[in-house]
Amino acid sequence: MKSKIKVLGSQVLSSVDVNPVTNTVTLLEDEVSLDDLQIDNPITGTVFGTLLNYKGELESLGDAVYDQPYGSPPIAPVLYIKPANTYNRYGGSIPMPEGLTKLTIGAALGLVIGKQAIAVDEKNALTYVAGYTIVNDTSVPHDSVYRPAVQHRARDGFCSIGPWIINRHEVQNPDDLTIRVFINEKLQQENSTSNLIRPIARLLADVTEFMTLSPGDVLLVGVPENAPLAQIGDKIRIEIEGIGSLENFVVDGKETKWRDLL
């Protein structure tokens, strides 16, 4: 499949052929495992997350969506930002903050924007997508969806991205991709983008109705309900059908400085 990767230390994306099943890159006619390469996250813009876009996630709130301060389910996309300090890469270590023992693993399909998107029409919304990537939208476990969860979602290393960007034309139907999360090789979660409340084109149209997305930005379609928890020492693997696998490890944050993990 045609894709783009960023070599660690480089500021530019390189076009390569990859195999999302074996997680390998073709270099000089040889298939090379990602474990034998040093690659950076392939993102050049801002990462925007979306809350409550899986049917099961919204249903799990029950009648709480009618409580104050809102009084009804959301009528527009609920967004948040993963700032640059959170960006992590394939094979990178996710630091467990001091005083915590569990982290929520948020498996998300990332839409990488290819051209400036302003008030796009749902019918041609996918033409604004350059490709797709995998994101581990890590967070500190929390219950509130009513206040900006900056201290829960914006910790250092809490947004692993990669391993590459699969070109849009390589993915036949992004609204029907199986997503799986493995912790220490044990399947802990399985869902599908077919369960999105706002399918991808609709989500792009609704978001760009009130904000501009720029080339290189990434819009996460959402995290499925019942996101698994991980602890220090765990190996995390997120698989998205047709995109590949993203692997990371959880380490003790108080023993290693975050920048030393990059």
TrEMBL record:
Note the superkingdom of the native organism: Bacteria
Q: Which NCBIfam families match?
A: HpaG-N-term
Q: Which organism is it from?
A: Sporosarcina highlanderae
Recall the GO molecular function terms of this protein's record.
Answer: hydrolase activity
> By its UniProt entry, which PANTHER family does this protein fall under?
4-HYDROXYPHENYLACETATE CATABOLISM PROTEIN (PTHR11820:SF114), ACYLPYRUVASE (PTHR11820)
Return the protein name. Answer: Fumarylacetoacetate hydrolase family protein
Keyword presence, Metal-binding: yes
Q: Does the keyword Hydrolase apply?
A: yes
Give the keywords, sorted: Hydrolase, Metal-binding
**InterPro entries (UniProt xref):** Fumarylacetoacetase-like_C, Fumarylacetoacetase_C_sf, HPA_isomer/decarb_N
- Residues that span the membrane, as ranges: none
Boundaries of every Fumarylacetoacetase-like C-terminal domain copy: 46-251
